[in-house]
Design goal:
Structural class of chain C: alpha+beta
CATH superfamily of the largest domain in chain B: Beta-grasp domain
Strand content of chain C: 15-25%
Order of helices and strands of chain C: EHEHEEEHHHHHHEEEEEEEEEHHH
Oligomer: heterotrimer
Radius of gyration of chain B: 16 Å
Structural class of chain B: alpha+beta
Chains: A alpha+beta, B alpha+beta, C alpha+beta
Order of helices and strands of chain B: EEHEEEHHHH
Distance between the termini of chain C: 55 Å
Number of domains of chain B: 2
CATH architecture of the largest domain in chain B: Roll
Largest sheet of chain B: 5 strands, mixed
Helix content of chain C: 25-40%
Radius of gyration of chain C: 19 Å
Number of strands of chain C: 14
Number of domains of chain C: 2
CATH architecture of the largest domain in chain C: 2-Layer Sandwich
Shape of chain C: globular
CATH class of the largest domain in chain C: Alpha Beta
Number of helices of chain C: 11
Distance between the termini of chain B: 53 Å
CATH topology of the largest domain in chain B: Ubiquitin-like (UB roll)
Number of strands of chain B: 5
Chain lengths: 785, 162, 289
């Protein structure tokens, strides 16, 4: 049964906004006319492949390129030594600022005399085609001296553990705490205290398109252009400026069509830098396309967290405090920052009134691929910890799991609600809007929560084990500080929109065009959107944190309004009409009720483009353009409640999700169908994290899941019917009232599903303390092996 | 470098080329014929992004050598629409049901469904899900794709009835 | 992930193919490509020569002869799937083939390719063991028949001489009215089985089981026949209790453990799935009454 969506919003009065308009992206993509990075072909282009470390930790004694260079069709083999003359700085310094770093671990452009994870790039081969490049990679002789590796993040922090980096005193990358209130007192006086240990693991991005880069050097302009499958072209350019010692005029970074991103593509990688240099050094355009095996071992991912947490409650199951600690696997380098650990710790208490909280976080270096956000970015883990704690309290106190949550959820009457926590940027966490109890009630009602016990009993009589689970989440979205948008009307009459926002499938072009069209004529086909190009707009941040509709959408709205205001003002002068009598329809400004009195937008643009010697009409400023960098510091908090119904085959451990309901609030909904699509995609990913995805490494740091037959992504047959209930609590923090939605589907899924599995297996006394959970483990839990 | 001359009919057009014998069909289509609509997602036969029709039957083009296509007919995503200005009913259904987001898996799903709907013009939802179970999508959660396939089936049946 | 360099050959007759096998160094036979091409792309195999069998038309056949199904090595899995002959006369194979990969896999994949890849989790391999198939191996000296039980020389290693190739297989058919079931546990639809079980039953007029075949796939280096279970079944009246007791021995096989499923779990599944397969096979017999 296909899921259904109910939407309590309205598009009354809106021309395009808040309507499910056709996407601008679709026709080209459906025809196979998308232009992804691997579709870019340039004359004389060569192809690259990387030599990658086969060891989790090794010293590099030497690199012999001779056999590789002798192979016909090989143009060059470059190592760090070859790149040095072109590098002002050898390391990618990208870490988000934090006072808690204990050591700096930045990636080198290529490994020098030490390699610290399987898959780390050691050399680049450039050849006539990728086949030959791979032949040559096998001929590059690297003299490795294997070293002990630290693999488990807990073991890495123990005294005497092998050092991830030879020159490091230890493997603690960062340590910090967060909290508020008097936690010790809360626990000391508590009627009940329960303790849990969790293992939480997330996996990789596995966008269907892997990474890629095409670079070309224009010797006449001395300009390097890099097309990269990046979610953050401006950040990438800043790294190139820093490392290559070139200025912004000499560099351009463009994100072409992206076949998905999901987080890891926001990272700037060694490969981006090296491919760019390869084009400069060889004088040829160079293309590198990551293959799936490389994606497993060199694209960032999320992995393990080990939690120890306690919850203190009073006799009425009201939470008095939560405290604990967790260890987070950071991988071998800092490719983003300490934000994942921060997000997980920050999220734990968000939906609930919790008077005291303390969480200590330790980030451990390990000899594995660096860890950076994957859709959800640490929030699923914080949510899982809190929701499992609540389930524990409910079970021990023999209370209904929905009831205990209602007793502790922040009520709508207390919004906006200040949490005594700070975001990683030092902003106070203020939950701006939302009705958490109502969402939970609606989700439970839709899912038939109250009647479930009877259904469960009936099923048990038939030898079937079904269960139901609930999870609430609150997630900060729309991370600032800005995303700029330029709106310009050219003499053609076309509305041109430029933004630092980047599209990766989430309909950025349609979103921006929709918002601008609302102000400028309502015809989305008259709007051209350019995103992800450092030549298009000078400053940009890009896609992450479910931020672009909040930031870029708001900037687009404000810029479009400015341009609208000017267009009407100039048109009023030219048409000799009153401004309030004018409207913009399609590509024209016209008098309401007298549509023959009109002037085209292009004509207006001509007029304010300036004619030598003639003054501009009405003292307007030149040009029909506005650039807005709408600044937002506080995050807009989205929320939701998920209810999962599962059936467990107690003999095989197989889990089937029978039904999944999500009541959700992402503020104003600009495009209901696109919002649903984001939630459904996130839910699928969350189901994957709960039941299927595991990025495995053995005790030597060798990855053991390196293809899509071993690492399992959800397919159409594993998806349950998903029902979405929308609420709209407009955020007061931006002019559109929107909140982010891209990651929200993934956040509650593992918690809700584990809660349901545990519920189904109540007769066996199974207690679930991990995600993911696989059939073999379920059978072991049931049989108490 | 060992090469062979091959003759293949691609999207109704006869193409002759000299190919390296180890070149995959996917790379031949993308690089030598410039038909970049067929995408590579895994190159080990799991993701289905590279699916094309070989004599009307869906195959993973990453698991075929170009030389194996000699004297066969290939249909890629570029050959689905009836013209440069019209879309196939299946493509229209995808557009109208939000059956794609980033579009990278889409060509492989379209070719898979062309074969499936030809052989199963009136499928159930469960049958559609099984039909596309060999195509991975990380963006959509499949719901929009399934809705598009069922909608396309109706449209295509309607067209047959005229 | 691109294939390494090799010399490509596409013979048109079995004789040519065998001759090439005999004279080339380090060759690999290419059938449907669904196993070999991923290995080539990942460079897990580095053959000097690839002998493409897709033009050897003589290797594609599917017919009933002398109480058995005779299937050529290059017969596409798709053709097996849509064959009325297979569905009617060898329903076990029909049920199994629907679980082999996906449509795209079966459109190219072949019987011979699957049998020679000899993945113990492969459905067709398990079916061959269940039906006591014989394989036809052709070499420079001619053809020989080998019972399938003797075909696996080791894990994913067929007992083929270097200059020999599998050209066909023969699947003896069970009497009309027999019960069949192919049951597998896999993580997702179309995945390789973690463990599979194939059951065939014949029940006599007296209501007692006259013939039984129980095969476990995916748990051991090659699919195994649960002989102890079969012995426990024959001569007894079918019942849930009988099936459960008989399959206890299946739960004691020496199973293989790997990073994806520990041995203890595979053993456990073997017992569960064998029992479920027997119940399903029996239900089919009862259902026809």
């Amino acid at each position: 049964m296909l899921g259904k969506t109910s939407w309590n919003g309205t598009s009354a009065g809106m021309k395009v906004q808040c309507n499910s308009v056709p996407r601008l992206e679709d026709v080209a993509l459906l025809r196979g006319e998308g232009r992804y990075v691997d579709d870019i072909r340039l004359p004389g282009m060569l192809h690259a492949a990387f030599v990658r470390s086969p060891h989790a930790h090794a010293a590099i004694r030497g690199i012999d390129k001779s056999a590789a260079l002798a192979l016909q069709g090989v143009q060059a083999v470059l190592t760090l030594q070859d790149l040095r003359p072109y590098l002002r700085n050898e390391r990618l310094v990208v870490g988000l600022p934090s006072p808690s770093y204990k050591q700096e671990r930045n990636r080198p452009a290529l490994a020098g005399d030490e390699t610290v994870h399987v898959g780390e790039p050691v050399a680049i081969v450039i050849a006539g085609n990728r086949y030959i490049a791979e032949d040559a990679v096998a001929l590059v002789m690297v003299d490795y001296d294997p070293l002990p590796a630290a693999v488990d993040c807990r073991a890495a922090l123990e005294a005497g553990a092998p050092k991830v980096h030879n020159d490091a005193p230890h493997n603690l990358l960062a340590e910090f705490g967060m909290g508020y209130g008097d936690v010790d007192r809360a626990f000391a006086g508590a009627k009940y205290i329960f303790r849990e240990s969790f293992w939480q693991h997330r996996g990789g991005s596995h966008s269907i398109e892997c990474r890629g880069a095409v670079a070309v050097h224009d010797p006449m302009a001395d300009k390097l252009t890099l097309w990269s499958s990046t979610q953050m072209p401006h950040a990438l350019m800043r790294v190139l400026v820093d490392m290559l010692g070139r200025d912004e005029n000499q560099l351009r970074v463009v994100a072409p069509d992206l076949g998905g991103g999901f987080g890891p593509k926001l990272v700037t990688y060694s490969e981006d830098v090296v491919v760019t240099l390869a084009a400069l050094i060889t004088g040829h355009p160079v293309k590198w396309i990551e293959d799936r095996r490389e994606h497993f071992i060199s694209t960032t991912q999320e992995r393990d967290q080990y939690w120890e947490v306690e919850i203190a409650v009073d006799a009425d199951a009201r939470i008095l405090g939560v405290r604990g600690s967790f260890i987070h696997d950071h991988g071998a380098y800092t490719a983003r920052g300490v934000n994942l650990g921060h997000n997980s710790a920050e999220t734990v208490t968000l939906p609930y009134e919790i008077p005291a909280y303390k969480m200590t976080v330790r980030l451990a270096l390990t000899n594995k691929v660096p860890v950076t956000p994957v859709r959800g970015a640490g929030h699923p883990q914080g949510t899982f910890a809190m929701e499992r704690l609540l389930d524990r309290v409910a079970r021990e106190l023999k209370l209904d799991r929905a009831e205990i949550r209602l007793r502790n959820l922040i009520p709508a009457s207390k919004m906006p609600y200040t949490k005594q926590l700070k975001t990683r940027g030092g902003m106070q966490v203020v939950l701006d809007s939302g009705d958490y109890p109502k969402c939970q009630q609606e989700a439970c009602e839709k899912a038939g929560w109250d009647g479930f016990r009877a259904r469960q009993e009936a099923a048990r009589k038939q030898g079937r084990y079904i269960g139901i689970g609930l999870a609430n989440f609150v997630k900060g979205t729309g991370r600032g500080p800005f995303e700029g948008v330029t709106v310009r009307i050219g003499p053609s009459g076309k509305v041109l929109v430029y933004s630092g926002a980047t599209a990766m499938g989430q309909s950025t072009r349609t979103m921006l065009a929709q918002i601008v069209a609302e102000q400028l004529g309502g015809d989305m086909t008259n709007i051209t959107v350019t995103t992800g190009d450092t030549d298009g707009i000078p400053m940009g941040i890009g896609g992450s944190n479910s931020r672009q509709t909040v930031t870029a959408g708001s900037s687009a709205h404000l810029a479009a309004k400015k341009v609208r205001h000017k267009a009407i003002k100039v048109a009023a002068l030219l048409l000799k009409a009153a401004e309030q009598d004018l409207e913009i329809v399609g590509g024209e400004v016209r008098v309401k009720g007298a549509p023959d009195l009109k002037i085209g937008l292009g004509r207006i643009a001509h007029t304010v483009a300036g004619t030598p010697g003639y003054s501009l009409p009405g003292e307007v400023e030149p040009g029909m353009e506005a650039t807005e960098y709408f600044v937002v510091d506080d995050m807009a908090y989205a929320n939701g409640s998920a209810v999962a119904e599962v059936e467990v085959d107690v003999e095989t451990g197989g889990v089937k999700i029978l039904r999944y309901v999500l009541a959700h609030d992402c503020g104003t909904i600009l495009h209901p169908v696109i919002v649903d699509g984001q939630i459904l995609g996130g839910t699928a990913h969350g189901i994957g994290n709960a039941l299927y995805e595991w990025m495995g490494f053995d005790e030597n740091g060798q990855p053991v899941t390196t293809n899509l037959g071993e690492y399992l992504l959800v397919t159409a047959t594993e998806m349950p019917p998903v029902e979405i209930i929308h609420h709209e609590s407009p955020s007061p923090l931006n002019p559109l009232g929107v909140k982010g939605v891209g990651e929200c589907g993934v956040v509650p899924a593992p918690a809700a599903i584990m809660s349901a599995i545990e519920d189904a297996l109540t007769p066996f006394g199974v207690h679930v303390t991990r995600t993911p959970l696989f059939p073999a483990e379920i059978v072991a839990l049931i049989n108490k092996w | 470098m060992e090469t062979r001359k091959i003759g293949v009919t691609v999207n109704g057009q006869r193409r002759e080329a000299e190919v390296e014998t180890r070149f995959t069909l996917a790379d031949f289509l993308r690089q030598q014929l410039g038909l970049t609509g067929t995408h590579l997602g895994c190159e080990h036969g799991v993701c289905g992004a590279c699916t094309v029709l070989l004599d009307g039957y869906s195959v993973r083009s990453c698991l075929m050598l170009a030389v194996q296509a000699n004297e066969h007919e290939i249909t890629t995503v570029e050959g689905i629409a009836p013209s440069k200005t019209e879309l196939h009913l299946l493509q229209e259904a995808f557009r109208d049901n939000h059956g794609l987001q980033c579009g990278f898996c889409t060509p492989g799903i379209l070719t898979t469904l062309i074969e499936f709907l030809r052989e199963n013009p009136d499928p159930t939802e469960a049958e559609v899900r099984i039909a596309i179970s060999g195509n991975l999508c990380r963006c959509t959660g499949y719901q929009g794709i399934v809705a598009a396939a069922l909608d396309a089936a109706k449209r295509m049946q309607g067209e047959k009835r005229g | 992930m691109k294939p390494p360099p090799f010399h490509y050959h596409d013979p048109e007759t079995v004789a040519e193919a065998v001759a090439l096998l005999g004279c080339l160094e380090n060759p690999k036979l290419l059938a449907g490509g669904q196993s070999l091409m991923p290995m080539l792309n990942m460079r897990y195999v580095l053959p000097d020569h690839v002998i493409d069998l897709n033009r050897v038309k003589a290797l594609s056949y599917l017919r009933e002869s002398g109480g058995a199904l005779e299937i050529g090595a290059m017969t596409r899995q798709r053709d097996i799937e849509f064959s009325d002959l297979v569905r009617n006369r060898c329903p076990l194979m029909h049920e199994a083939i629907l679980q082999v990969g996906h449509r795209q896999t079966r459109n190219r994949g072949t019987l011979g390719g699957s049998l020679c890849q000899l993945d113990p989790a492969a459905e067709l391999v398990t079916v061959a063991a269940a039906l006591d198939a014989t394989v036809t191996l052709t070499g420079p000296k001619g053809r020989r028949e080998l019972s399938f039980a003797g075909f696996p020389a080791g894990y994913m290693t067929p007992a083929l001489e270097p200059d020999e190739m599998l050209t066909g297989a023969r699947f003896p058919l069970w009497a009309k009215g027999h019960g069949h079931a192919f049951v597998e546990f896999s993580r997702r639809h179309g995945d390789f089985a973690v463990v599979s079980a194939a059951a065939l039953l014949e029940v006599g007029a007296s209501g007692k089981i006259t013939r039984a075949s129980v095969t476990i796939g995916g748990a051991t280096p090659a699919p195994i026949r649960a002989r102890e279970a079969e012995r426990a079944l024959v001569g007894n009246a079918a019942s849930s209790t009988l099936f459960r007791d008989a399959c206890e021995s299946c739960g004691k096989i020496e199973a293989v453990g790997d990073v994806h499923a520990p041995a203890s779990y595979r053993r456990h599944l073997a017992g569960v799935l064998a029992r479920r397969a027997l119940e399903k096979a029996h239900a089919r017999i009862e259902g026809r009454k």
